[in-house]
Amino acid sequence: MSALAATNEVVTRALLRQVNVPGLDRPAALITLDNGFDHTKPNSFGPGGLTSLDEAITAALAANPAFVAVTGKPYVFCVGADITSLPQLADREQALEIGRLGHRVFARLRDSEIPTFAFVNGAAMGGGLELALHCHYRTLSGGAAALALPEVSLGLIPGWGGTQLLPNLIGIPAATQVIIQNPLMQNKMLKPKQAAEMGIADVLLEPADFLERSLEWAAGVVRGEVTVTRPEVDKDMWAGVLYFARQTLDARLHGAVPAAYKALDLLETAKDADFATGTAAEDEALADLVFSEELRSGLYAFDLVQRRAKRPAGAPDKGLARPVTKVGIVGAGLMASQLALLFARRLQVPVVMTDLDQARVDKGVGYVHTQIEKAVSKGRMDKGTAAKLYGLVSGSVDKGVFADADFVIEAVFEDLGVKKQVWAELEKIVKPEAVLATNTSSLSITAMAEELEHPERVVGFHFFNPVAVLPLLEIVRGERTDDATLATAFAVGKQLKKSSVLVKDAPAFVVNRLLTRFLGAVFAAVDAGTPLEVANRALDPLGLPMRPLALLQLVGPAVAYHVGGTLHAAFPDRFGVSENLKRIADSGQPIVVDDQINDEVAKLLVVGDQPLTEEQVRQNALDALAQEIRLMLDEGVVAEAQDIDLCMILGAGWPFHLGGVTPYLDRTGTSERVTGRRFLPHGVASLPA
């Protein structure tokens, strides 16, 4: 253990105490996991934490208690292995050792003759959830914020028994969802009710008195008054479910995420293998993945989302931010209506929308009310909150309602002249310190504000669609935007629970600029004569969330053509204008129908006689990305390459196994070949040189 103990671990201590529970003739042993910090630094397990738990279990069993229970500090059970220590492992033997240590310690709870319980009082992920699975029984708090086995999203597998225990507890369909499907869907978490319905927990309890009720329930189990029944797992469907899951992975990832396929293999092992054989296979899989480039990219991406996103580079002193007690939204279309609901829910202040006529205003307010009603009907919002939101959102055809607003955002037609006219009119109405924000996706903030008396209060506030789902917010500083305006924008972004990135006022900012360059390379290949299906398959080896044509359909061909035109005007040497894209936009037809290319769209194309291979299309697209990112960094569009990756992960859904985009470009040698150097040093999102 000496080599493992050398890692820079924040040790989670396992604190043991004896608890007298009414109705039992002996005290219970309660082990509380606590790393000494508040909930913002969750419990995790490295070698030191596992050793502490091992010692606590030894002491607990020695006291011959009525039962042994493990719980966590307030709001947190345990979020798994200390993944920050993984890059410090020197060789495969150390990786095997950390896997075996976790298995050995956790197995003591599973193999104990004294009943063992997990009181899952808060967030339980990865190894934390696996620890709970080893216990004989599990209670779960309705306030537990995050429940998951997210390892595959990082490039790992659940390596402390999860792949063997979970399918034999809740069945193979649900286990495949938790271990593979959810991690690959932007690391989707389970809600406590869902976890209980799956059978991960034996009982769901209210958070207010969770520990007391858990002790009472456990005592009832020990006395035989509470009987825990679990349905028998159907093993007849095991092979069929895994076959379908493998087909789905092949169709979506094309082998790009080795961890997902390793997890499938382990789930297959869990059907018939004894537990020792299954956990030994987990150890081997873990050791294989620890030294993969995909894991290093995954850890890098995880760090960006968990740390950098919470401390935006270049953001001004938050003390400069002005209070926002009322929000105005210019426009009442779909985007504006989504914004109105988001601002009302998060800021809990009055939000008023305006539009050209009452019918449009009523439609926008009606959309908000409908969404509130849906949330109530699905149990996602209580009636009291709904009633409050109904009262906060209103509409008017008179822009005079913005006179007392502190923050006004426009979501009107993407035309510079229209937006300048809006601001010119509003500047005469709003108070002098009001922030004027634009949701433009590509237009210049500086140009938009240049004719105003106070251009310093105009800021870009670019959301991504759907607004409620995608967490990125590009905050764009114009040439005259002042620090107070920028600080207010960042403060509002934080209240909205968005991850904000500071972006220079440059055409299309970050995500749209890169996606337009990327799609431009694909469509250039189509224009040259490459069949649509060939161009569409070309990027499959990256394992992107969707193929290029599906992405284009999601964005909207008309929007893509418009943004492309903006970028062509700014950079005509790199951003072409595809007449074929215009034909598709003008046709109004879907490009893809049931994952198949629309034959009617294909007939619209006018193409050349120089088709490219899939490999050529892919390399052209990657080369274009590398060139554009280097130029953006040289221009100072963002502070560092890490911000590019953060934007692509949070705004475009690009996966962790790519690290966003720059680690993949480095890994494949594209960065150095196209730009002469890497974006990130060796050892950052990659193995050391």
Strand order of the largest sheet: 12-11-10-13-14-15-16-17
The CATH C-level name of the largest domain is Alpha Beta
Helix percentage: 40-55%
Beta-strand residue fraction: 5-15%
What is the general shape? globular
- CATH fold assignment of the largest domain: 2-enoyl-CoA Hydratase, Chain A, domain 1
Mean pLDDT: 95
The counted number of beta strands is 19
CATH superfamily of the largest domain, by name, is 2-enoyl-CoA Hydratase, Chain A, domain 1
| Total helical elements | 29
Q: What's the CATH architecture of the largest domain?
A: Alpha-Beta Complex
Rg, alpha carbons: 27 Å
How far apart are the first and last residues' alpha carbons, in Å? 27 Å
Number of self-contained structural domains: 3
Low-confidence stretches: 1-6
> How does the major sheet shape up?
8 strands, mixed
Q: Helix/strand-derived class?
A: alpha/beta
Domain 3-hydroxyacyl-CoA dehydrogenase NAD binding: 326-505
GO molecular function: enoyl-CoA hydratase activity; long-chain (3S)-3-hydroxyacyl-CoA dehydrogenase (NAD+) activity; NAD+ binding
Catalytic activity: a (3S)-3-hydroxyacyl-CoA + NAD(+) = a 3-oxoacyl-CoA + NADH + H(+)
Family: Belongs to the 3-hydroxyacyl-CoA dehydrogenase family.
What does this structure look like?
This protein has 689 residues and is of the alpha/beta class. The protein has three domains: 13-291, 2-enoyl-CoA Hydratase, Chain A, domain 1 (Alpha-Beta Complex), CATH 3.90.226; 323-505, NAD(P)-binding Rossmann-like Domain (Rossmann fold, 3-Layer(aba) Sandwich), CATH 3.40.50.720; 511-636, Orthogonal Bundle (N-(1-d-carboxylethyl)-l-norvaline Dehydrogenase, domain 2), CATH 1.10.1040. 48% of the residues lie in helices and 12% in strands. It contains 29 helices and 19 strands. The strands form four sheets. The chain has an eight-stranded mixed β-sheet, with helices on both faces. A six-stranded mixed β-sheet has the order 1-2-3-5-7-9, sandwiched between helices. A three-stranded parallel β-sheet has the order 4-6-8, covered by helices on one side. α6 (162-170) crosses α7 (172-181). It is globular, with a radius of gyration of 27 Å. It starts with a helix and ends in a 14-residue tail after the last helix. The model is unreliable at 1-6 (pLDDT under 50).
